[in-house]
Amino acid sequence: RTQAEMAHTCRGTINLSTAHIDTEDSCNIVLSNGGRTYHLKANSEVERQRWVTALELAKAKAIRMRNNQSDDSGDEEPASQSDKSELHGTLKTLSSKLEDLSTCNDLIAKHGAALQRSLSELENLKLPAEGGEKIKAVNERATLFRITSNAMINACRDFLDLAETHSRKWQRALQYEREQRIRLEETIEQLAKQHNSLERACRGAPGLSSSSTGITSTAKGSVQSAKGEASDEDEETEYFDAMEDAPAFITVTADPKHHRRSGSNLSGASEGHPEDWNLEDSVFESSNQSSYNESTCKDLLPKKRRRTRIPDKPNYSLNLWSIMKNCIGKELSKIPMPVNFNEPLSMLQRLTEDLEYHELLDKAVKCESSTEQMCFVAAFSVSSYSTTVHRTAKPFNPLLGETYELDRLEEFGFRSLCEQVSHHPPAAAHHVYSRRGWTLWQEITIASKFRGKYLSIMPLGTIHLEFHSSGNHYVWRKVTSTVHNIIVGKLWIDQSGEIEIVNHKAKDKCQLKFTPYSYFSRDVPRKVTGVVSDADGKAHYVMSGTWDEKMECSKIVQSSHGSTSTEGKQKTVYQTLSPKVLWKKYPLPENAENMYFFSDLALTLNEPEERVAPTDSRLRPDQRLMESGRWDEANVEKQRLEEKQRAVRRRREAEAVEALEEGKDYEGYIPLWFERKVDAVTGELICVYKGGYWEAKDKQDWSTCPDIF
């Protein structure tokens, strides 16, 4: 099958060219690709081996096909059957008319020739001189008439050929205009429906009186539709499953004193206790991030002075189109890119940047309520995108076996380790241990497509977070990142999709929606909204904010069903207390625009450190040369490292083919510090930390590390 066919397979399909094939025991086979895992069972060990051999051969064939073929998938959608029929009917009518014109042309030519013969005969007769001149003039006019009729027929034939050539282009233009008109009509209709529903919900919401503060503004409160919101996303953007059971909701800020007096008179609603929303007794704080730093971060002051700047980014010109025009439709990891498109950090370091707001998890440890803890976990999941708003450069693709450690055990109580465990597809495993009461681990596979006008980056895999004292185990996935204006215009990044965070112990859930940018929307750009609910589905908190600035949490004191909208959906009205700021982005350091818009943490990630593993990203020579501003040398070094890695991969593929021909098992690349296991919570095959790295660091015994640089 071609790659274009593979890209449009049915849901649930695993692409063998990027799949991991493992055996659990004598009869079981595990197929995994990103976040999807299949468990197969054979009748006997012999049959299992036959299947493994067949799958490995099929995988090798799929890899060869992927390397030899280019992705022919385009941005165009095929015309519908009715449009094709209409187009063919029009062309058939034009052809019929052209045949009629050709017949008329033949008749004109026939009769014109007869007329000329007759006129020639008249010229030969003995007629007066005046009559001969007139007959000669008529003969010339008949010749001109025949020439003109032939030219007309040729022009009609050229027109039909042109119509056939450009009919596809006209059809696409017409279809685009139709879609734009329908999209605009739907958007206007949706806005009108939301406006009317908001008015009805405001009038019909129970418990509202003159003492209530009323409906919050569009930026604060939220009118969120779980499905059907208009956007101008391209058709290739990856869409996630919508929250089918999550109706649109409206938040209304209520007066706590008023609610305390009137709460006993409300019926048919889920009620909370405003007195629980107390700054002195709750982990939540309404103060901003700076006051949080002043009051609680005295013990977090770094004991080691770290760098606060890097060399300024050089101003090198580059012909972008000459490089990009040959990359359309290809997998991003297969495109040889110069360092001009990079930033001096690897993907492993970018993954470690998720820990910039680790104090949110430190605060979550102190929460007694699992739903309160969920709010902090949700804010942490959103905070990881705050560094991407200005970061349009591409991180370095890690080499297979490359690692990155971030040891902040003495300063912030945690230590982090990343390892590149697969190259095709690129996959990184990450493990973080905090002695303040939590552990985080993940395996992320990056799928990306360049389509000429934008770049979609789809992180596959799950993120796990476990709190030691409570045993609460949270799992979620990342959303799709899209880089727009790749060729023309200023680059900008958008995050879109939905995150479902699940506490597998308490069964709490949080549904977060990242609203994609829309030209027609009045919402705040980069908006994120969500609801935290318990195992019974009862909503406790409303989350709102933006992924590049801050996240707020509002405690729900009452929820009720508003009026039914015209499309038959029931809106939920949440009365909430005043929101509390859970997370606020740190300001960027001075001169950040000349330092790749790095945050304070990002500036320290590539700082040279002693005693790290020889495979650490800090020791990667091309990345270090780029950071120093020596880009030409960095490009040469980058090509050398990539060619070295290709040679290792070719040798490994040859060994795999030889083992298959001999009927032996071939394990392939085995990660050094991680191992593949079936996760007990999700049932997925995931790389987890097996230990040994920090012990090897203490002993400075790196004898097992491969030579990748």
TrEMBL record:
Residues 65-87, 202-237, 254-278 are annotated as: Disordered. One of its GO terms (molecular function) is cholesterol binding. Keywords: Coiled coil, Lipid transport, Lipid-binding, Membrane, Phosphoprotein, Transport. InterPro entries: OSBP_sf, Oxysterol-bd, Oxysterol-bd_CS, PH-like_dom_sf, PH_domain. Residues 1-60 form the PH domain. It is a peripheral membrane protein. It is found in: Membrane. Residues 207-222 have a biased composition (Low complexity). Residues 174-201 form a coiled coil. The keyword Nucleus does not apply. Gene3D superfamilies: 2.40.160.120, Pleckstrin-homology domain (PH domain)/Phosphotyrosine-binding domain (PTB) (2.30.29.30). The keyword Protease does not apply. Belongs to the OSBP family. This is Oxysterol-binding protein.
